UniProtKB/TrEMBL annotation:
Its EC number is 3.6.5.2. It comes from Geospiza parvula. One of its GO terms (molecular function) is G protein activity. It comes from the Eukaryota. It is found in: Cell projection, Dendrite; Melanosome; Recycling endosome membrane. Its cofactor is Mg(2+). One of its GO terms (cellular component) is dendrite. SMART domains: RAB, RAN, RAS, RHO. GO terms for biological process: plasma membrane bounded cell projection assembly; protein transport. It holds the Pfam family Ras. PANTHER family: PTHR47978. This is Ras-related protein Rab-17. It catalyses: GTP + H2O = GDP + phosphate + H(+). Its main location: other.
Length: 199
Protein backbone atom coordinates (compact mmCIF):
# COMPACT_ATOMS: atom_id res chain seq x y z
CA UNK A 1 0.00 0.00 0.00
CA UNK A 2 0.96 3.64 -0.27
CA UNK A 3 1.71 5.05 3.15
CA UNK A 4 1.75 8.77 3.87
CA UNK A 5 1.79 10.48 7.24
CA UNK A 6 -0.43 13.29 8.41
CA UNK A 7 0.64 15.17 11.53
CA UNK A 8 -2.00 15.64 14.24
CA UNK A 9 -1.64 17.20 17.72
CA UNK A 10 -1.22 13.64 18.99
CA UNK A 11 1.64 13.00 16.56
CA UNK A 12 2.01 11.51 13.10
CA UNK A 13 -0.99 9.58 11.85
CA UNK A 14 -0.36 6.99 9.14
CA UNK A 15 -2.59 6.81 6.13
CA UNK A 16 -2.88 3.91 3.72
CA UNK A 17 -4.24 3.92 0.19
CA UNK A 18 -5.71 0.76 -1.28
CA UNK A 19 -6.69 0.35 -4.91
CA UNK A 20 -9.76 -1.85 -5.39
CA UNK A 21 -10.81 -2.80 -8.92
CA UNK A 22 -14.25 -4.11 -9.87
CA UNK A 23 -14.28 -6.63 -12.73
CA UNK A 24 -17.11 -8.61 -14.31
CA UNK A 25 -19.55 -8.90 -17.22
CA UNK A 26 -21.68 -5.99 -18.32
CA UNK A 27 -24.75 -5.24 -16.21
CA UNK A 28 -23.81 -7.38 -13.22
CA UNK A 29 -23.97 -4.26 -11.04
CA UNK A 30 -20.34 -3.16 -10.60
CA UNK A 31 -21.14 0.55 -10.81
CA UNK A 32 -24.20 0.08 -8.63
CA UNK A 33 -22.10 -1.61 -5.94
CA UNK A 34 -19.54 1.21 -6.00
CA UNK A 35 -22.30 3.81 -5.97
CA UNK A 36 -24.10 2.12 -3.09
CA UNK A 37 -20.89 1.86 -1.09
CA UNK A 38 -19.75 5.45 -1.65
CA UNK A 39 -23.09 7.29 -1.89
CA UNK A 40 -25.36 4.83 -0.06
CA UNK A 41 -27.85 5.13 -2.92
CA UNK A 42 -29.20 3.04 -5.79
CA UNK A 43 -30.21 4.51 -9.12
CA UNK A 44 -30.05 3.69 -12.84
CA UNK A 45 -26.52 4.46 -14.00
CA UNK A 46 -25.29 4.66 -17.58
CA UNK A 47 -23.13 1.75 -18.75
CA UNK A 48 -19.53 2.47 -17.80
CA UNK A 49 -17.26 3.79 -20.54
CA UNK A 50 -13.70 2.60 -19.94
CA UNK A 51 -13.57 3.04 -16.18
CA UNK A 52 -15.17 5.10 -13.41
CA UNK A 53 -13.36 6.17 -10.30
CA UNK A 54 -14.59 6.53 -6.73
CA UNK A 55 -12.83 7.37 -3.47
CA UNK A 56 -13.85 6.47 0.04
CA UNK A 57 -11.97 7.55 3.16
CA UNK A 58 -12.29 5.62 6.41
CA UNK A 59 -10.95 6.61 9.81
CA UNK A 60 -9.64 3.72 11.87
CA UNK A 61 -8.40 4.08 15.44
CA UNK A 62 -4.80 3.93 14.38
CA UNK A 63 -4.81 5.16 10.77
CA UNK A 64 -6.66 6.71 7.88
CA UNK A 65 -7.54 4.31 5.06
CA UNK A 66 -8.40 5.52 1.58
CA UNK A 67 -10.06 3.21 -0.91
CA UNK A 68 -9.55 4.09 -4.57
CA UNK A 69 -12.29 2.18 -6.35
CA UNK A 70 -11.80 1.54 -10.06
CA UNK A 71 -15.06 0.48 -11.66
CA UNK A 72 -14.29 -1.07 -15.05
CA UNK A 73 -16.66 -1.35 -18.03
CA UNK A 74 -18.09 -4.83 -18.58
CA UNK A 75 -18.80 -4.39 -22.27
CA UNK A 76 -16.69 -6.64 -24.48
CA UNK A 77 -15.21 -3.76 -26.46
CA UNK A 78 -13.39 -2.46 -23.36
CA UNK A 79 -11.92 -5.78 -22.23
CA UNK A 80 -8.62 -5.33 -24.05
CA UNK A 81 -7.76 -2.26 -21.94
CA UNK A 82 -8.86 -3.64 -18.58
CA UNK A 83 -5.32 -4.65 -17.62
CA UNK A 84 -4.48 -0.94 -17.51
CA UNK A 85 -7.00 -0.52 -14.73
CA UNK A 86 -6.21 -3.52 -12.54
CA UNK A 87 -2.45 -2.93 -12.67
CA UNK A 88 -1.11 -2.30 -9.13
CA UNK A 89 -4.47 -3.16 -7.55
CA UNK A 90 -4.46 -4.29 -3.92
CA UNK A 91 -7.81 -6.02 -4.32
CA UNK A 92 -10.15 -7.18 -7.05
CA UNK A 93 -13.86 -7.77 -6.70
CA UNK A 94 -14.94 -10.32 -9.32
CA UNK A 95 -18.63 -9.56 -9.66
CA UNK A 96 -21.30 -11.79 -11.20
CA UNK A 97 -25.10 -11.68 -11.27
CA UNK A 98 -26.63 -14.55 -9.27
CA UNK A 99 -29.51 -14.60 -11.79
CA UNK A 100 -27.22 -15.08 -14.79
CA UNK A 101 -25.00 -18.16 -14.93
CA UNK A 102 -22.94 -16.86 -17.86
CA UNK A 103 -21.69 -13.98 -15.75
CA UNK A 104 -20.42 -16.48 -13.17
CA UNK A 105 -18.40 -18.23 -15.91
CA UNK A 106 -16.97 -14.88 -16.90
CA UNK A 107 -15.93 -14.17 -13.30
CA UNK A 108 -13.99 -17.46 -13.33
CA UNK A 109 -12.18 -16.32 -16.48
CA UNK A 110 -11.28 -13.07 -14.76
CA UNK A 111 -9.70 -15.09 -11.98
CA UNK A 112 -7.58 -17.00 -14.52
CA UNK A 113 -6.38 -13.71 -15.95
CA UNK A 114 -5.49 -12.28 -12.53
CA UNK A 115 -3.69 -15.49 -11.58
CA UNK A 116 -1.40 -14.95 -14.56
CA UNK A 117 -0.66 -11.33 -13.63
CA UNK A 118 -0.37 -11.41 -9.81
CA UNK A 119 1.39 -13.57 -7.25
CA UNK A 120 -1.05 -14.95 -4.65
CA UNK A 121 0.16 -12.59 -1.91
CA UNK A 122 0.06 -9.52 -4.09
CA UNK A 123 -3.70 -9.12 -4.34
CA UNK A 124 -6.81 -9.88 -2.32
CA UNK A 125 -9.51 -11.35 -4.54
CA UNK A 126 -13.20 -11.50 -3.60
CA UNK A 127 -15.89 -13.27 -5.59
CA UNK A 128 -19.11 -11.27 -5.33
CA UNK A 129 -22.52 -12.63 -6.36
CA UNK A 130 -24.68 -9.52 -6.79
CA UNK A 131 -28.49 -9.05 -7.09
CA UNK A 132 -29.56 -11.28 -4.18
CA UNK A 133 -32.89 -9.42 -4.28
CA UNK A 134 -33.61 -11.45 -7.44
CA UNK A 135 -33.79 -14.68 -5.43
CA UNK A 136 -36.69 -16.05 -7.50
CA UNK A 137 -34.55 -15.86 -10.66
CA UNK A 138 -31.40 -17.31 -9.11
CA UNK A 139 -29.27 -19.39 -11.52
CA UNK A 140 -26.08 -19.60 -9.43
CA UNK A 141 -26.59 -21.37 -6.12
CA UNK A 142 -23.84 -22.95 -4.01
CA UNK A 143 -21.34 -23.09 -6.90
CA UNK A 144 -20.23 -19.53 -6.11
CA UNK A 145 -19.23 -20.28 -2.56
CA UNK A 146 -17.81 -23.71 -3.49
CA UNK A 147 -15.64 -22.20 -6.21
CA UNK A 148 -14.41 -19.43 -3.91
CA UNK A 149 -13.51 -21.94 -1.20
CA UNK A 150 -11.58 -24.10 -3.68
CA UNK A 151 -9.63 -21.10 -4.90
CA UNK A 152 -9.12 -19.46 -1.51
CA UNK A 153 -11.10 -16.33 -2.41
CA UNK A 154 -13.24 -14.18 -0.18
CA UNK A 155 -16.89 -14.77 -1.04
CA UNK A 156 -19.94 -12.65 -0.48
CA UNK A 157 -23.40 -12.28 -1.98
CA UNK A 158 -24.72 -8.74 -2.22
CA UNK A 159 -27.53 -6.58 -3.48
CA UNK A 160 -26.69 -3.04 -4.49
CA UNK A 161 -30.44 -2.50 -4.80
CA UNK A 162 -31.48 -3.60 -1.31
CA UNK A 163 -28.10 -2.70 0.25
CA UNK A 164 -27.35 -6.27 1.27
CA UNK A 165 -23.75 -6.84 2.44
CA UNK A 166 -22.26 -4.09 0.25
CA UNK A 167 -20.31 -2.46 3.09
CA UNK A 168 -19.33 -5.90 4.30
CA UNK A 169 -17.50 -6.72 1.07
CA UNK A 170 -15.26 -3.68 1.35
CA UNK A 171 -14.80 -4.19 5.07
CA UNK A 172 -13.82 -7.81 4.58
CA UNK A 173 -11.27 -6.81 1.96
CA UNK A 174 -9.92 -4.01 4.18
CA UNK A 175 -9.72 -6.25 7.21
CA UNK A 176 -7.56 -8.70 5.31
CA UNK A 177 -5.00 -6.00 4.62
CA UNK A 178 -5.29 -4.16 7.82
CA UNK A 179 -6.33 -6.65 10.47
CA UNK A 180 -8.63 -3.99 11.92
CA UNK A 181 -12.34 -3.78 12.45
CA UNK A 182 -14.77 -2.09 12.31
CA UNK A 183 -14.14 0.47 9.59
CA UNK A 184 -15.98 3.73 10.15
CA UNK A 185 -16.86 5.95 7.23
CA UNK A 186 -16.12 9.59 7.94
CA UNK A 187 -15.84 11.25 4.56
CA UNK A 188 -16.88 10.69 0.98
CA UNK A 189 -15.18 12.08 -2.08
CA UNK A 190 -15.79 11.71 -5.80
CA UNK A 191 -12.85 13.32 -7.58
CA UNK A 192 -12.69 13.11 -11.36
CA UNK A 193 -9.63 11.32 -12.70
CA UNK A 194 -8.23 12.16 -16.13
CA UNK A 195 -8.22 8.46 -17.05
CA UNK A 196 -11.73 7.78 -15.85
CA UNK A 197 -15.27 9.08 -15.89
CA UNK A 198 -17.39 9.63 -12.80
CA UNK A 199 -21.00 8.43 -12.93
N1 LIG B 1 -32.28 -6.19 -9.04
C1 LIG B 1 -31.06 -5.64 -9.02
N2 LIG B 1 -30.61 -4.93 -10.06
C2 LIG B 1 -29.36 -4.41 -9.97
C3 LIG B 1 -28.53 -4.56 -8.86
N3 LIG B 1 -27.35 -3.94 -9.09
C4 LIG B 1 -27.47 -3.40 -10.32
N4 LIG B 1 -28.68 -3.69 -10.85
C5 LIG B 1 -29.19 -3.29 -12.18
O1 LIG B 1 -28.40 -3.94 -13.16
C6 LIG B 1 -28.21 -3.07 -14.28
C7 LIG B 1 -26.72 -2.86 -14.51
O2 LIG B 1 -26.17 -2.20 -13.39
P1 LIG B 1 -24.75 -1.48 -13.46
O3 LIG B 1 -24.36 -1.12 -12.09
O4 LIG B 1 -24.75 -0.42 -14.48
O5 LIG B 1 -23.86 -2.70 -14.00
P2 LIG B 1 -22.33 -2.70 -14.45
O6 LIG B 1 -21.80 -4.04 -14.10
O7 LIG B 1 -21.62 -1.54 -13.88
O8 LIG B 1 -22.48 -2.56 -16.02
P3 LIG B 1 -21.37 -2.05 -17.11
O9 LIG B 1 -21.08 -0.62 -16.80
O10 LIG B 1 -22.05 -2.23 -18.43
O11 LIG B 1 -20.19 -2.93 -16.95
C8 LIG B 1 -28.94 -1.78 -13.96
O12 LIG B 1 -30.24 -1.85 -14.54
C9 LIG B 1 -29.04 -1.80 -12.44
O13 LIG B 1 -30.16 -1.09 -11.94
C10 LIG B 1 -29.04 -5.31 -7.74
O14 LIG B 1 -28.39 -5.52 -6.71
N5 LIG B 1 -30.30 -5.84 -7.88
Amino acid sequence: WAQQGTVTPEGPRPSHTYKVVLLGSMSVGKSSLAYRYVKNDFRELLPTVGCSFFTQILELDEATVKFEIWDTAGQEKYQSVCHLYYRDAHAALLVYDIANKQTFSRAKLWLEELEKKFLPDEIVIALVGNKTDLAAEREVTTEGEDFARTKGLLFMETSAKSNHQVNDVFMAVGELWHGSSPFIVTEMLLPASPACTTP
